Amino acid sequence: MQIVVDILNSILFDAAILSLVTMGIVLIFRTSITTNFAQGTIATFSAYTVTAIVDLVFRAYLPNMPMALILILSMIIGIITASLIGLFIDVVLIRHSRFTNPIAKQMITMGVIMLLTGLQTVIFTQLGMETRTPQFFTDSLGTHKIISYVLTIVVIGTIFVMLKFTKWGIGVRATASNEKVASMMGVNTKRITLTSWAIASALGALAAALYAPTIFTLSPNMMVGMQVNGFLAAVLGGFTSFGGPIVAAVLMTSARVIATKLLFGVPVVILGSQIDVWVPAFVYLVLFIVILFKPLGLFGKKIVKKV
Fold this sequence. Notes:
With 307 residues, the chain is mostly helical. 75% of the residues lie in helices and 0% in strands. The protein contains 12 helices and no strands. Helix 1 runs antiparallel to helix 8 and helix 1 (2-32) packs across helix 9 (224-237).
C-alpha cells in the first residue's frame, strides 16, 4: 500500500509541474503561433530571483518574519518578475514580428535565452547568493509535494474556467482560430497575446518555484528537462487543444514513474546501473510510436480552412 501511495505522490507532483509548463507553452503557441523556447529560461530566472529575495532581503532585514510568509511573498515576486519578462518579450519583440513566419519568432525566443542566461550569471554571481533552494510552505518535502499539486489543480482549473466563460477566454480562442479575422471582428488581439505571454511566463515561474526545493540546488539548466517534456506533452496531446496536452503531461509522467519501477527489476547486466538514462528513452520510444499513428496528437484535430 505504501508503494502505491509513493507512486501516486510522485506521479501527481511531477505531472503538476509538467502541466504548468505545458499550459504555458500551449497558451503562447495558440495565441502567437510560435513555440517559446525561452519558457524554461524565464522560469529559471524567476527561481533565482525568488531565492535571492529570500536570502538577501527577507532573511537579512526581516529575520523575525514567519518563514511561510517570506516564501509566499518571494514566490509572488518571482511570478511578477516572470510576467514582466513575458510582457517585455511580447511588446518589444514578438509584436513587431507577429505576421512573420513562426521560425523567425522562435529565433527571437532563442535570443531571449542568451540574454536571460547572461543576465542571470552576471546579476546573481555578483550578489554572491547561495544556490541552495529554500523549502516552500514547510520543511517536509512530502507536504510540499501535496500542496504543490493541489495548488496546480486550482491554477490550471481556474485557467480552464477563464478560457470557457470569460471574455478573455473567448478572445484567446478567437485569436487561436484566426488572429486576423478575430481582429476584424473587434477582438483586441494585442491585449490577448499580451496577457497570454504574461500568464504563460507566470505559470513557468510557479512551476520553477515549486520544483526547485525538490532538487535542493539551483542550476542554469534546471528547467530544461521540464521544457523539453512540456513540448513533447503538447505534441502528444495536440497543439490544437488546451486540455489534450495536460492529459498528455499526466500520461507521460505516469509512464515515466511506472517505467522506473518496472526497470528497477531488470538485471543490472542488461541495462547497467544507469536506470535514469533508460527510463526517458523508454517513454520517448512509446511517445514516438504513438505520434506515428496519431501525428496530430491524441486530442488534436485537423484544421480545415475554407477559401
